[in-house]
Here is the input.
Amino acid sequence: MRALDIKLWRDMLRLWPQALAIALVMAAGVATLILGVGAYDSLSTTRQRYYEANGFADIFASLTRAPASLKSDIAAIDGVAAAETRVEEIALADLPGMAEPASVRLVSLPEGREPALNRLHLRSGRLPAPDSYEAVASAGFAAAHRLAEGDSLRVLINGRQRDVRISGTALSPEFVYALGPGALMPDDRRFGILWMPEHSLAAAYGLDGAFNQVSLSLVPGVDPDMVIDSLDRLLQRYGGRGAHGRADQQSHAFLDAELHQLRAMSRILPPIFLLVTAFLVNMTLSRLIALEREQIGLLKAMGYSSLSVVRHYAGFVTLIAAAGIAIGMVAGSWLGAEMTTLYAKFFSFPFLVFSRNPAVYGIAAAAAYAAAIVGAVKAVREVAWLAPAVAMAPPAPPRYRKILGGYADLSGYVRQSSVIVMRHLTHWPLRTLSGIIGMALAVAILVGSLWSFGSIDHMIDVTFRRSDRQDATITFTEARPERAVFNLRQLPGVSAAEPFRAVAVTLRNGTAERRVSLIGKEPGVSLTRVLDGALMPVTLPGEGIVISDALARVLKLRRGDRVEVAVLEGRRQTLDVPVSAIITGFIGLTAYMDLAALNRLLDEDSVISGAYLMLDHAQTDTLFAALKQMPAASFIALQYAAVAKFRETLAQNVTIMITVYASLAAIIAFGVVYNFARVSLSEQGREMASLRVLGFTRGEVSALLLGELAAVVIIAQPVGWGLGYLFAWAMAEGFRTDLYRVPLVVNREVYAWASLIVFAAAAISGLAVGRRIDRLDMIDVLKTRE
Amino acid sequence: MDQPPAPVFRMKDLRKIYRTGEVTVEALRGLDFEAAAGEFIVILGPSGSGKSTFLNIIGGLDRATSGEAWFRDHDLIRANEAQLTRYRRDHVGFVFQFYNLVPSLTAFENVKLVTEIARRPMKPAEALALVGLEDRMDHFPAQLSGGEQQRVAIARAIAKQPDVLLCDEPTGALDSKTGVRVLEALTTVSARSGATTLVITHNAAIAAIADRVVHFANGAIAREERNATRQPASAVSW
Here is the structure.
């Protein structure tokens, strides 16, 4: 081994804690990049493979009823590769051990053949026997209710109670994210899918020789919008409710939102760690090189070239980077696998493709190494090209300056130990600034991640306590006269009922358009309210449409603008309606109208789609029993159950997320404080030992270093809060999808927790360095020149 | 005739053994020493004679392995870490070979740094005037010459009005002319404060300014001599 290489290894052995601290920060950057990109890749590849293997459709459409013969016309549309028709309905199921009814989606399976599209992945058992009341149940639903082959459950099928026998369990690419009506999170207990033989289901709903749903796959390269238009034209006379692509398919859209979030995360976190890495490498290497200035001069005097000196220090950085990259890759791969497994639990995939894309690893390694080299360049450049004679001479002593040029004489008020701290910090402004920015980023990571919990609370509070305050929402199988609401009010346990009408529409402004459910409500209702920007209830105006701020944003609409409303059902009118108010809405894209105005606009009688209910909780069991028998009820969504499930899912994620982010922030805080302290101690060790000789106690001497650290950490807090708010904003923007919008609410507790965690990490590394102060050699300083 | 004043330092059979691994080095081999209040003592000896080890023990920086070492009623052998710190803080002024000033503090502030923790300090400006640096108080160490830095160090040592002034090769890093100015400052403050002053050096020329000269060799005192008359520092050169 060459002598310089031996020196390299010895330096590394001596400086290992500092090198490790830097390597860990770098590892966090590499790991978050691999995790983010890897999980994104895994999830999207898994989805892709699943879709391909099971023939997930490209276009979906629901209609009232069309003859089976229409299928060939549909298949003949230009650009259609395959078409599949079926019967699909929502029904209530009565399950043992559950007072409230569960909702099941009944989906027909063609008999005697595999469906061309959206094929099932059978988990157990077999497909239902033709013409029977057998069903394949979605695997999650079956597991939640311990339903095995041969078990039965009671389902209210088109007004008649039927016993449905389970023949097997399965997964489907259509229901990877299986959300029940009115639910916020998948809930396998309250919602499931039952695939039944086409004949039995069609017969039960009077759809013999007919269908009410169609899915298409496209020839590659075909414009889906053209096919959608042709399909809509074909289905118009059959009560078509507007065909849509995958983007509006619920399960697909939720997976998209998740992928969207993963990408946002993988773009924000890794650069932070790599920036801090560059700071730390610069800080540590500058000091190492300053200490070795004379040795560098000596090496050059002996005939080593500037390049070999540069290579020597680059080797030091490369070793650190190699360690950081290795740790980061292992951690990233492991976390990626864990995260993908979590996804598998949350989403229903039959298999998982772990993405181990070498390119991702290569990019992560290259980015991390580049960050380290960038940090090293300045430090190495300063000394490598010095003439040997200059390098061998001790550097000019640091020239300190009075703070504020000496105009503010603080000597009467401030102790000299504080003056030392202040002068040292201001003498190395770039290093001090790196320290402050590093710590601020640690705080910012925490603020930028912890805020979401408070914000989700705010979202729940606004949505379910101030706006949609109903206990349950009941939806009819088809629109019914408005007086149906009186019958609901007569039911036991119903304290109040407010009717609503839901119409599928496309809202269009120029080229921007969105499919939404336009809800008509009575104007002055108290149970469900619409809220303005200040969260004050708004009375629905007698005319015009009221849209949520999120919808206004995507459609670029303001109050007073006019919007085109294309009705997707009934007579499919296209109307021009003024926007009469913009309201607050976090979940989905919402649009409201006065119920009477909506019916007038559609030129229809007073009909309703369902009602919002307030329940007397003492009598809910009686009510549920009644609802399970009520033929008109298609499904009932329980608000409190939805919110509880939402919170439960969130609570699981909270622990994981806080642990991950707090560890990441602690790594930065520890790395920054440790290196900052070691460098500072290396510079001031001699002074400190001298002060010990002069009679200063350990505490007084430690206070010099700890004071410096405290100043950096404290100044970093407000900076970190500010940066954290920006991160939070960027996350909120990055997470924004049509499905939901996370309000940017950063509570004071978030700032407090972020600072506390960072203080704790800083204190631990401060103490680790403080022990070195105790071991300062007082005798040595008497005899040596620095 | 006056009673001889009670000694401030009393050392008896002082031994110091350094053990590093298998190697044992006996730095002090049963040394006896006394010093009276206000005495100006120069300790001479070649490298390795034990004079620095002696200074470390007398200055409360290190503890002897055996023997007795007393400063008045302070036991320097059995004192713990905190007691030794207290001893240095309250009683000892140090002057180092390489000055050891805090580079980020001005001359005035370097002195003030010590007066802030002293029990009965003089004013920093007064201490600096004693060493002739009243005009350079606002300068940082990097803006002062070596001799000036050492005089700041002397002002810093004396500002707390110590009982003992310990100087380790105070002119070791200086040329003769500058060294003499530093010695002048040292003798002035020593006389003015009445502190017992020990100057360790291997520069024999300095011996002339002392009341007493102690020669070290092989970890023990080889001989002692008393100057009948002390020379002023200005009369010394090397």
In short: The longest strand of chain A covers residues 494-509. Chain A touches chain B at residues 396-400, 402, 406, 411, 415-417, 419-420, 423-424, 427, 686-687, 690-698, 700, 778-779, 781-786 (CB under 8 Å). Residues 428-467+641-786 of chain A form one domain.
